[in-house]
Amino acid sequence: MMIESMIGMLRYVSARHDDDLTDRMHYLFTPNILLAFSLLISFKQFGGRPLECMFPNKFPGSWEQYAENYCWSQDTYFVPPDQHVETLSEEQRSGTQFSYYQWVPFFLIFQAACFRLPSMLWNYLSTTSGIRIREVVERAMDASNMDETVRLKNVDVLVRHLKCALRFQRRMTRRNILIHKTIKILNLTYAPSFISTMYLFTKLLYLINVVLQLFLMNKFLETDKYEWYGLGLIKDIMNGTRWENSGAFPRVSVCDFTVRQVANIQKYSVQCVLVINIFNEKIFILLWFWYTAVLLLTIYSVFYWVIIMAFPCCGRWFVSQNLEMSEMKFNGEKQKKQVTKFVNEYLRADGVFVLRMIAMHAGVIFGTDLVLALWKVFYGLENAALDQQTEESRSGDSEDNNNKSNFLRRRKKKQLKENAYDMESLNKRMKNKGSYKEHKYENDTLETTLLPIENHYHGKGGRDSRASQEEKDERERREVETNDKRFSTEDPRI
User: Fold this and answer.
1) Is 334 in the same domain as 281?
2) pLDDT at residue 1 tops 60
3) Where are the transmembrane segments (predicted)?
4) Is residue 213 situated within a structural domain?
5) Which element (helix H / strand E) includes 94?
6) pLDDT of residue 479
7) Which end of the chain has less neighbouring CB within 10 Å, N or C?
8) Tens digits of per-residue pLDDT, 460-494?
C-alpha cells in the first residue's frame, strides 16, 4: 500500500516548459531522487531487519525478537570500541544517543515536498497576468513545427495571443478604477514585468530552500561536531578517520532494555548492528554533494537572470540578434532606435522574457520567426499585403452581389409566371361554377373586375347555399387583392 502511494506521487512530479535546467534540478530531478531513496530505505526498514542484536545464550527466541523491536523503537547510543559500557554514566549514554535512522524515509519525503513547493507557486503565479507562458512554450515546442506551414500557423496563433495579452496589460494599467486606485496591490498582476519578477522570486525561493535543506540535514543527522556535514566528512576521509572513532553513521551501537521478572527487574545492555546505516551513510553523502552542486548552479542562475532582466540593453541585444537572423533586411546599428521603441513600448519586460523562454525551449528558428512577426505587427509592415487582400475581397464581394441580384431577378420572373398560371386556373374554376373573373396585367399592375353572379337555389337549403357561396367569393376576392398589392411592389425591372 505504501509503495503504491509513493509511486502515485511520481505522477505529480513532471517536467514543465517555462523554466531552465536549474529549475528542473530543483522541482524535478531532486524530488525524484529523494522519493527513490525513500522507497529504497522503506524496503529495508519495514520489509527486512534493519537492526540485529547479539544476545546471551540464555535468551530464548521470543526474547530476542522482543529486544530487537524494543531497541529499534527506542534510541540506541554509540560507544567507541576501546571503551567499556559499564564505565559510562547515564548522562554520557544519553549524550551519544541517536534516533534519526527511524525517520529517514519520512525526512526524505519532507525534503522532496520542500523542493516542489516553489514550482507549484510559480505554476499559479504565471497564469494570473493573461500570458499563458506554459501553453505558449508548449505550442512553440510542437514537433509538427518542422513543417513550415504548421510552423507559420503556430507563429500566427502565438502572435495574436501575445498581442492581445500585451494590449490587455497596457489597458488595465491605464484604467481608472476606484478600487485599483485605493488598493495598489491589485495592479500588481497587470504590471509590465509581473511574470519576469515572479520568476526571479521563484528562483530566490529555490536558493533559500536548498540552503535550508543543507542546514536541516546537518541537524537531522545530529552531527554537531561538524559545522557542515559534507565538509567534515571529507576532512575525516582525508585524515583517515574511520566511523568507529567519528561516530558518524555508526554500524554498531548499544541498546539498554529491562525485563520484568517475578521478584525484580533485570536490566540488560546488548550490542546491535545497524544495517540500515550502511545505506543511510551513502545516501546522505550523495545528497549533500548533490545539494551543494544545485546550490552553486542556482546562485549562477539567479545572477544570470537578474542581469539580463535588470539591464534593458540585454533585451535589445536579444531582439536585434533574432532580427539579424531573420529573412528581413535588418541593420542593428541604423535601426537601434526602432529596436529600443519596440522593446520598451511594445514587448517590455514580460514580452522579452516570454520570447527568451520560447527561444530556449523551441529553438532559434521558431524564436526568430516569432520575433519577426511581432516586429511586423508593431511597425505595420504587413499593411500593404492587408490592403491588397482587402481590395481582392471587395472585388469578390461586388461580383457576388451582381450574381445574387441576377439570381433574384430570375426567381421573381419565375414566381410571377407561376402566379399568373394560378390565376388563370382560378378563372377557369370560377367559370365552371357559373361566375367568372377577368384579370388584366398592364405595366406590372393587376386590374380585377368582379361581375355579378346569378345563382338558382332549390329547396330549403337555397338560402344557406347562397350565403356560403358569398363567403367563398369574398375570400377569393381578398386573395386577389392581396396578390395585386404584392405584385404592385415588385421591382419595376422585372
Assistant:
1) no
2) no
3) 194-216, 297-319
4) yes
5) helix 90-95
6) 62
7) N
8) 444 455 556 666 667 666 665 555 554 444 444 33
Give, in degrees to the nearest 5, the angle at Cα 193 between 191 and 196.
Answer: 140
Which cell goes with 276? 540500515
Q: Specify whether the CB–CB gap between 259 and 266 falls below 8 A.
A: yes
Contact call for residues 130 and 165 (beta carbons, < 8 A): yes
State the alpha helices, DSSP H only, in 268-311: 276-310
429 or 400, greater pLDDT? 429
Q: Which three cell numbers stand for residue 254?
A: 548499544
In whole angstroms, give the CA distance from residue 123 to residue 286: 29
Q: Are residues 319 and 349 in the same domain?
A: yes
Per-residue pLDDT tens digits for 117-141: 999 999 988 888 778 888 899 999 9
The number of beta carbons lying within 10 Å of the beta carbon of residue 25 is 20
Question: What distance in Å separates the CA atoms of residue 17 and residue 469, rounded to the nearest whole number?
Answer: 86
Which amino acid appears at position 83 of this protein? Q
Q: Are residues 366 and 406 in the same domain?
A: no
Contact 199, 309 (CB under 8 A): no
Mean per-residue pLDDT for 372-377?
92
Distance CA 215, CA 202 (A): 20
By C-alpha distance, which of 277, 288, 232 is closest to 33? 288
For residue 360, give every residue at least 6 positions away whose Cβ sits within 8 Å of its Cβ, in sequence order, or none.
Answer: 20
Concatenating the DSSP letter of every residue in 429-466 gives HHHHTT--EEEEEETTEEEEEEPP------STTHHHHH
Mark whether 288 and 326 lie in a shared domain. no
Could you tell me which of 450, 474, 451, 455 has the C-alpha nearest to residue 466?
Answer: 455
Rounded distance between C-alpha atoms, residue 114 and residue 349, angstroms: 29
Digit-coded pLDDT (tens) for 286-309 = 999 999 999 999 999 999 999 999
In-domain check, residue 171: no
Which residues, in sequence order, are CB contacts of 116 under 8 Å at separation 6+? Answer: 12, 13, 27, 31
Q: Assess contact for 298 and 210: CB atoms under 8 A.
A: yes
pLDDT at residue 432 tops 60: no
Within a domain: residue 26?
yes
Provide the domain limits for residue 338.
313-381
Q: If residue 355 lies in a helix (H) or strand (E), which one and from where to where?
A: helix 348-362
